[in-house]
Design goal:
Number of helices of chain A: 3
Helix content of chain A: 10-25%
Radius of gyration of chain A: 28 Å
Structural class of chain B: alpha+beta
Oligomer: heterodimer
Strand content of chain A: 25-35%
Shape of chain B: globular
Number of strands of chain B: 3
Helix content of chain B: 25-40%
């Protein structure tokens, strides 16, 4: 009995597809891209596949971290943010570092969430200290004024 | 600079006689003539990442001066002069601005 093989019309040139664990040369399967799509799963098994040598080179892994975030959650019910605080995001080794450059404040941690928590804690400590009845130098007085643009008592 | 240890930040804090407060982090404040002029902090915990460059910025010094603070080639007096030259410490703090507790009053 003859078997009917569904025809798949590639819309783009065939691609080599394979699973590789590291950069280098190996073997993959030459398949048209359509069979990688869910709607053509029926055709996938019927398409003639051909083993071809492939060379795979990995580029640098793109970070999932954003370049900046806006901090908007103070962990103190007596204070509220007037507006979100812009933070630059960077990584140092395995650490995530957040920087509020306007006042040289930072937060760091092993994840973005941990760095945000660290920043939030430091921000509250800074706010409270600068609002104690103490004499501030010109730099910290400026920091206090900037903080007051972003944070207010409820 | 990224391999600075928490212990080395403690050297700076102790050398400058900074007031410290423990909360989530160790917060340190430099008080000169009763005026709070500079602050910094470091995380608790062994092996935690120390953002040395951020701490350096909070202390208002360049990389060479920061290294000197750690290695003891920059003394407290030298550091205070750096801050005065940058206007971080006012050169003439009026006596009225200095809290009574900080003044040298005759007994």
């Amino acid at each position: 009995m003859a078997t009917t093989i569904p025809t798949v019309q590639p819309t783009t040139p065939p691609v080599a597809y394979g699973e590789v664990a590291q950069a280098g040369s190996g073997y993959g399967v030459l398949v048209p891209p359509e069979i990688l799509l869910p709607h053509s799963m029926d055709a996938a098994g019927a398409v003639e596949q051909k083993m071809v040598p492939v060379s795979v080179t990995f580029g640098p892994i793109e970070s999932a971290l954003p370049q900046s975030v806006r901090f908007g959650a103070l962990a103190n019910p007596r204070l509220r943010l007037r507006k979100a605080i812009p933070l630059a995001v960077s990584t140092e080794g395995s650490a995530t570092v957040l920087t509020w450059e306007e006042i040289d404040e930072f937060g760091c941690g092993e994840s973005l969430g941990a760095a945000l928590d660290n920043f939030g804690g430091a921000l509250l400590e800074l706010y409270h200290r600068l609002h104690e009845p103490v004499q501030l130098g010109p730099d910290l007085e400026k920091v206090k004024q900037i903080l007051d643009k972003y944070i207010e008592a409820r | 600079m990224s391999d600075v240890k928490a212990r080395e930040i403690d050297i700076i804090i102790n050398k400058l006689g900074m007031e410290t407060r423990n909360s989530n982090d160790l917060h340190a404040w430099l008080i000169h003539n009763g005026v709070v002029v500079v602050r910094t902090r470091r995380s608790h915990g062994k092996g935690k990442y120390v953002p040395a460059d951020k701490i350096r910025c909070q202390l208002k010094v360049n990389e060479e001066q920061f290294a000197g603070l750690i290695s003891c080639s920059v003394k407290k007096e030298h550091y205070l002069k750096i801050l005065m030259d940058k206007g971080i410490i006012p050169k003439n703090v009026p006596a009225s601005a200095v809290p009574i507790a900080s003044r040298n009053l005759p007994s």
